[in-house]
Write a structure and sequence with these properties.
The chain is α+β, with helices and mostly antiparallel strands. It contains 21 helices and ten strands. The strands form three sheets. A six-stranded antiparallel β-sheet has the order 2-3-4-5-8-9. A two-stranded parallel sheet has the order 1-6. A two-stranded antiparallel ribbon has the order 7-10. It is elongated and about 155 Å long.
Length: 910
């Protein structure tokens, strides 16, 4: 506004203030439009204004304007309306178009049926019963939850049988085979939740076998064997058509006006009934009966209505492309019309469908094999969890006794009872106690993993306890034999070889596509015509005579036709066929390269398995010597400490090393037994090693009836040698599941290795025990009861602050009283009763106690030396496995306990 000349600014102020109101800055676009229009039409002589440097300042009062002339007022109003319209249009475009709700007279405002979202997350209604094991699981066992439960003693064979009976879906624990299964307790089953569509099930082979060839988005939606064979089934074809025509016609003769009807009316009936059959070499044969009825008002006809009937036999045979049984069994039949139109053959014939089914069977075998691997891993890991728990309890008990002695010396004010030594002994005790609690929780976790692969509820009031013992016999596998066996029997190699065979057949089919399509076809036809279609009697009349019979004329054979021809089509350049050949050549080269590297990988895997077998056996021997040495060290440190010649910390460290050595020995022994299983896993004999054999499930009764009828039909038929039409060999025949070596040679100790300890002096001779024995610890109870965690005994003047333990750690697990039958409910034992009975071995079949009495110190004169399990064992009579067939599992006695005896005597077990 400051750039406007002074007279114009005066007029602007006058027009804006004509209403007598205060003018405020920027009060609207419409007001500014009035001001601009006003100062353009005002004159200097008509205004009396109060000139100001800032005429639009807020709150300033301006002078009133004198009346404008009538003509200028009319012009101002006209332009004002134009400006208002323009500004309203601009405001409308700036704000955009917004839809408005319609108005209804009878609207009551109830909008409960209105949905303000397009989709929400919902739960589908499906007809699927959940497993009782999933819905009826009890509260899990934890350190804070010690409900009454029963021990459930199971052998590995019983666990295997239960796992297979409950495994329609092959549950796995993941890739535990690489780390020996030592992290099973740290895992949570998530294989199905993350890979639900790729998990192996018992339905997979049947799904592939029954694939109809439709695309359903599933990996099982391909063409099955039956669907591929259906391409060669005979086809029955029939059609029937009736038609009425009524139309005017623009022709005729003046001399004969009714010879050609000007209004043509006609009834037409047409029908056909025939059967066609495609043979294995691509030929097509057909036999068809065609008939037609015609009735019209044309005056040139002898009869107003007539019947035409014919029977024709046709054939078509490819001579180049698509000819032969091999190509038709590989790619399926293709008609000349399909080849002429450029229809690409999908190469999905009977042989390809059968290979796909064989691959699905192979995948199913891999799923069962991995299930057996995880079952045995979890079983022996649970065995180690019990042993590790006992080792930690031994350390805890010895630390407790040491703490009690130091505490007694402290109360008596004698040497050795200083505050620092008492605190050190107390710290050592609680260290072992935490290890016991951790080991107990790990035991619960591993037991849950075993329950998972068995298909059982997570908790059902029973705690699984392994009843099989580990083997200590040295197993040796002949490398040349097991290496050759692995390269033949590994399921992954057999699967890849099927892929190579599939690519070879696809290459054969693609090479056939480069040939021109040349088909020879022929037709032979018998015809008949008459006034009627058929009569039960013959009259010998000529066609179209009154009462003539069309079928009689046809059977007389007076009217016959034939046709013979060649059909040829060929693309110029064969670009598609050449591209297909190159593509399948590259596919075949790729699959062969993968097979070669897969064989190399299997060889390396077997190498590591055999190496780990010898390593774990040697480590088990070494850890046994470490275990003996640590026991001797504890006895020596205890004696020196009792006479005051050694400080407490040396004794506590020795007790720690003894507990670690006890756990390490059983860790290495479990790893050795698992290494035996891994050798069988790597060489492809794990299923036979566990007594598992795959078998086809039962078919419906009608299927057996039809198969028997087909077999009797073939038996009554005449044998015709079709050998010249058969393709090359595809398969080597059925796969024998129980062939090959499933066990290694048991080598007596000393045959390959030196003494147990790598010392210049000979190793100490230890008598050979009958079975693996444990430290000769006291067992006051004298029965097979167990307490997995002991209470904290009362100690006089023990501090009550700073070392409070959880209440769960003071509770006692239920135990089995002496004389109770297996599986009986065990009452809860109080801490007082526990101090009187003591803790005993949790393994039912071994009467040796693994824990000392918590209330009394172990005798320092008693020998706790473990007996050597690795000495030469006398050969025993071979035990013949007794096979008891089940659905998919077979028992084999002596899975672990009789393994050494059977191996020494020439058995085939471990």
């Amino acid at each position: 506004m400051r750039n406007i000349p002074t007279p114009l600014r005066t007029r602007y102020r006058a027009c804006v203030g004509a209403s007598g109101d205060l003018v405020r800055g920027d009060e609207g676009l419409a007001l500014k439009a009035v001001a601009v229009n006003a100062f353009r039409h005002a004159s200097d002589g008509e205004l009396t204004a109060n000139r100001s440097a800032h005429p639009m300042r807020t709150g300033e009062r301006v002078a009133r304007a004198a009346p404008l002339p009538a003509r200028e007022a009319i012009d101002m109003n006209r332009e004002l309306r134009s400006y208002i319209c323009i500004w309203l249009s601009l405001l409308t475009l700036a704000s955009g178009c917004h839809p408005t709700q319609p108005f209804f007279f009878r609207e009551d405002g109830d909008l409960s049926h209105y949905m303000d979202v397009a989709s929400t997350i919902e739960y589908p209604e499906v007809d699927a019963e959940p497993l009782v094991e999933a819905t009826a699981s009890q509260e899990p066992l934890t350190l804070a939850n010690f409900d009454t439960y029963q021990f459930w003693d199971l052998s590995l064979e019983e666990v295997t049988r239960m796992a297979l009976e409950n495994s329609q879906v092959m549950r796995t624990l993941g890739g535990r085979i690489t780390d020996g299964g030592q992290n099973i307790s740290q895992s949570t089953p998530e294989t199905i939740t993350t890979q639900g569509t790729n998990v192996a099930t018992t339905y997979d082979p049947a799904l592939v076998e029954s694939g109809p060839g439709t695309g359903t988005g599933s990996q099982f939606s391909g063409t099955g064997v039956e669907a591929a064979l259906a391409a060669f089934d005979a086809q029955l074809n029939s059609n029937l058509l009736w038609q009425y025509n009524d139309r005017p016609q623009n022709f005729g003769l003046a001399s004969i006006p009714n010879f050609f009807a000007p209004n043509f009316r006609q009834d037409i009936g047409q029908g056909a009934l025939g059967i066609t059959k495609t043979t294995g070499d691509g030929s097509t044969f057909g036999l068809t009966n065609n008939y037609a009825y015609d009735q019209n008002n044309n005056g040139s006809r002898i009869q107003p209505s007539d019947w035409n009937v014919n029977v024709e036999a046709t054939f078509s045979k490819p001579l180049l492309q698509g000819a032969g049984t091999q190509i038709n069994r590989i790619a399926g039949p293709q008609t000349f019309q399909q080849a002429q139109s450029g229809f690409l053959n999908t190469i999905d014939g009977v042989m390809i469908a059968r290979i796909r089914h064989d691959i699905s069977l192979n995948d199913f075998e891999i799923g069962v094999r991995n299930l057996m691997r995880d079952v045995e891993d979890a079983y022996w890991e649970l065995y180690f969890s019990y042993r590790d728990l006992e080792a930690r309890k031994i350390g805890r008990d010895s630390a407790l006794v040491t703490w009690q002695r130091v505490k007694a010396l402290q109360r008596a004010g004698q040497s050795g009872g200083e505050a620092d030594q008492e605190a050190q002994a107390r710290s050592q005790y609680f260290l072992f106690r935490s290890q016991v609690e951790t080991a107990l929780t790990s035991l619960y976790r591993v037991e849950n993993r075993l329950r998972y692969v068995m298909g059982l509820a997570a908790t059902d009031g029973r705690l699984i306890r392994p009843s099989d013992e580990l083997t200590t016999a040295q197993i040796h596998f002949d490398w040349a034999a097991v290496h050759a066996e692995a390269l033949v029997r590994r399921s992954e190699l057999r699967k890849q070889k099927w892929q190579v065979k599939r690519r070879e057949l696809e290459l054969v089919a693609s090479k056939n596509q480069i040939l021109p399509r040349l088909d020879v076809s022929g037709t032979y036809r018998w015809l008949g015509a008459g006034d009627e279609l058929i009569n039960s009697y013959g009259n010998g009349l000529s066609p179209f005579a009154n009462g003539s019979n069309a079928w009689e004329v046809l059977t007389d054979g007076n009217y016959q036709e034939w046709q013979l021809g060649l059909n040829f089509t060929m693309p110029i350049g064969f670009r598609t066929a050449m591209s297909g050949i190159r593509h399948h050549q590259l596919l075949l080269a790729r699959e062969r390269a993968v097979l070669q590297d897969l064989e190399l990988e299997v060889s390396h895997q077997l190498t590591d398995a055999v190496r780990d077998l010898d390593l774990n056996y040697a480590v088990a021997q070494t850890n046994f010597n470490r275990r003996v040495a640590s026991e001797d060290e504890v006895e020596a440190r205890q004696a020196l400490y009792d006479v005051g010649q050694q400080t407490l910390d040396f004794l506590l460290q020795a007790q720690q090393r003894r507990a670690d050595a006890e756990s390490a020995f059983f860790r290495s022994l479990v790893d050795y037994n698992r290494a035996i299983m891994r050798v069988h896993y790597r060489k492809g004999s794990l299923l036979e090693y566990n007594g598992v054999y795959l078998a086809e499930g039962p078919w419906p009764g009608k299927a057996y009836f039809d198969a028997l009828r087909r077999a009797r039909q073939r038996d009554a038929s005449v044998l015709i040698d079709y050998g010249f039409t058969r393709p090359s060999v595809i398969s080597r025949g059925p796969y024998t599941q129980n062939s090959g070596t499933i066990g290694g040679e048991v080598i007596p100790h000393g045959a390959l290795d030196g003494p147990l300890e790598n010392d210049p002096t000979p190793a100490e001779e230890i008598p050979a025990p009958n079975n693996l024995q444990q430290p000769n610890l006291t067992n006051p109870a004298g029965n097979n009861s167990v307490s997995l965690i002991q209470p904290l005994p009362a100690v006089d003047a023990m501090p009550t602050t700073g070392m409070v333990v959880p209440a769960s750690a003071l509770q006692v697990l239920p135990r089995e009283p002496a004389g109770n039958p297996p599986g009986a409910t065990m009452p809860t034992v109080s801490p007082a009763q526990f101090n009187q009975q003591g803790a005993v071995n949790p393994f039912r079949n071994n009467p040796t106690a693994w824990s000392t009495d918590a209330g009394a110190a172990p005798s320092t004169t008693a020998s706790h030396r473990p007996e050597n399990p690795f000495v030469s064992q006398a050969p025993a009579a071979a035990t013949t496995p007794a096979y008891v067939p089940t659905a998919i599992h077979e028992y084999q006695t002596g899975h672990a306990t009789d393994q050494a005896a059977a191996g020494v005597a020439g058995g085939s077990r471990r």
